Every structure is written in structure tokens, then in C-alpha cells.
Amino acid sequence: xxxxxxLYAMNIEHRHGGRDALGYLVSNxxxxxxxxxxxxxxxxxxxxxDSVISSVNTTDDAAHLTLADGSRITxxxxxxxxxxxxxxxxxxxxxASMHDFGRVMMVCVMEHEVPHQHVAWEWFDYGRTLALLxxxxxxxxxxxxxxxxxxxxxxxxxxxxxxxxxxxxxQHRLGAMRLRSTRHAYxxxxxxxxxxxxxxxxxxxDAAVGMHPVTAHGFxxxxxxxxxxxxxxxxx
Length: 236
Ligand SMILES: Cc1cc2nc3c(=O)[nH]c(=O)nc-3n(C[C@H](O)[C@H](O)[C@H](O)COP(=O)(O)OP(=O)(O)OC[C@H]3O[C@@H](n4cnc5c(N)ncnc54)[C@H](O)[C@@H]3O)c2cc1C
Description:
Blueprint: E1 2-3, H1 28-40, E2 53-58, E3 63-67, E4 72-75, E5 78-80, H2 87-92, E6 96-112, E7 121-125, E8 128-134, E9 139-147, H3 148-156, H4 159-169, E10 177-179, E11 184-193, E12 197-198, E13 201-203, H5 218-235
Flavin-adenine dinucleotide (FAD) binds next to strand 6 and helix 5.
């Protein structure tokens, strides 16, 4: 963990905790693939992948959904996991506090000249935060957090200019760097609803707690929420 221009870094090592590893970095597309494979053949789960919800309402006995194609679904419980900007949460009437940091995170994969030694970096620099999450080989996931106009400029740059700009942001610690993926930008907004449940309705995932991505725990926390809700349903 690096702080501004300081040459001192906070090192957190698995050896301190007597463990094999502090944790594991798993690419999101592999998690999504595994989740899909886990449900696609289940007789108890019907996947409606290309559907969009157009309206919802609940009564004491049931939740009613209408999809964009006009079809209707009735269920005993509606669980919404439709992102931190959940439209379903809004439609049910649950209010939420949002904090817009006025900053945007840009994520991409880059190849670099100097080995990362499988160390993850979090660098709280002046005016920007940089993160480097090691991947196999000489590649890493790079996360840059800056103001919206600065990120917009990075998104629009030619690949050559982009490579030079990122090398400079990392102060050439990784040598020459080359973009190896598309660039993705996420506005930094945290969200916390006033309630997690309503009549025949529950929130999980980011719809329940949209935390700051610097914690790198939103997905993990979402899994905990799903597990907790399942236990509550079994008990009920
Ligand atoms: C840059 C970045 C880095 C992160 N790094 C980490 C990390 O290292 N570790 C970690 O644990 N977490 C991390 N997170 C957080 C993690 O990505 C989220 O917590 C997680 O994706 C939340 O999952 P979710 O399913 O609740 O919501 P989402 O992933 O937002 O998915 C919501 C889904 O609902 C769909 N949807 C929305 N509205 C509708 C509608 N009306 N009808 C039908 N479908 C709809 C959307 O299309 C989408 O597929 C990171 C987040 C960011 C932005």
C-alpha cells in the first residue's frame, strides 16, 4: 500500500497471519461463468436471460412482475439484485442514501515489462488512486480512480497515448505497459437503502449495499447476503 510520493509502503503479507495466502484474485468473467454453469441445468431454476422487468407490485400473499414482453410472473417472494441503482427497489418504494464521489474508476488489463511478483498494489496518490491486481504472467488488472473529466480523457486516448499516460501514472515502476483489453469506466457512487425488506420483497447484492469498490468486497458481501437470506427463508 503506497501513500503519495512516500518511499515507505505498508506491506501486508500472508506470512504475518501464518496462512498460505491472504486471498485469491479471480477474474470476474470466470466467476460469472461458474455461476451460470451452476444454475443452467437445475430443474428448479428457470433462467430468463434477455428479460427486462417493466413493473412490479406486491400484496400480502404474493409478488407480481410484468416483463417488457408483456408476460407476467407471480411468486411468493421477489428478491432484487439489479445493481446499486436498482429500479425494482425504487418501484417498491424503498428509499436509499447515495453518495456520489464525483469520481470515476477505469478498469482494464495491461501487459508490463517488470514482473509484479504477485503483489497487489493500492496506491493513494495525490489526486488519484491506482490499483494493480496481478494476473498470471506479465499482466495485471489496472484500476485508476480520478475525476470524471480526467477519466473521460483516458477513455478517449489512442492506445499509444494511453499506454504512455498509465506508465507515467505508475511512475514507470512497471516499465513499458501495453493495453490488453477494452477500457471500462464506473462512476463512483455508494448506496445504502433505508430498509432491506418490504412486503414479499427483499434486496441482496449491490441493491442492498453498494459499497466503495476500494474495499474489493462487494461481491463477497453479496454472497454473504444471499446465504443469510436463504437461511432466513428456510427458518420462516
Ligand atoms: C471497479 C470495480 C472493482 C470491483 N472489485 C471487486 C472485488 O475485487 N471484489 C469484490 O468482492 N467486489 C468487487 N466489486 C464489486 C462487485 O462488482 C459488485 O459488488 C457485484 O458485481 C454486485 O453484484 P450484483 O449482482 O448485486 O449487481 P451487478 O453486478 O450490478 O448486476 C446487476 C444485474 O442486474 C441487471 N439488471 C438491472 N436492472 C434490471 C432490470 N430492470 N431487469 C432485469 N435485469 C436488470 C443488470 O443488467 C446486471 O446484470 C468491484 C466493483 C467495481 C465497480
